[in-house]
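Hi R.,

Here's the chain you asked about this morning:
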Amino acid sequence: MMQGDGSGMMGDMPGMMKMMMKMHRMHGDMMDGGMMGGHGGGMMPMLDADGDGNVTPQEMREQLQAKLSEYDSDGDGTLSIAEFEALHSAMIREKMVDRFQHLDADGDGAITGDEMTAPATKMERMKKMRSGMGQMMQGMGQMQQDQSGSGQGMGSGMGNSGGTGSN
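And the predicted structure, written out as tokens:
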């Protein structure tokens, strides 16, 4: 596919990288983690050719060019939408498998209705816990107000009458 300036889809490496990162951030946000984050996952470790934890522009250029060559199935030097889809799918597969395994609580290779809705069930439990804690905290606040209003709070009690005291 040609762009307005006559260059192929991969003619502008920084633009291609920016587009891929944006797409992965969108997918990562939906799945609780982005392309740049995570230990052992995401695009940055894939681009870090020497494994030193830093990606140089040269490493990025070489690795992206290698990805172009790997996924350019028709050998025309560009990625069609279908070829890019294959690249994209390969990049997000690991995270997808992790998410699948997380939902498949019994590890049988199939996600049941209960397993699929388990995050919603967990959310309900957490909301109930927060609500209960909020009510408990309100009750404690009310108890403190009641105690301070009845003279039972801090600063009042035996030996605090303000007088000289007796011995």
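Residues 1-7, 27-40, 156-163 have pLDDT under 50 and may be disordered.

Let me know if you need anything else.
M.
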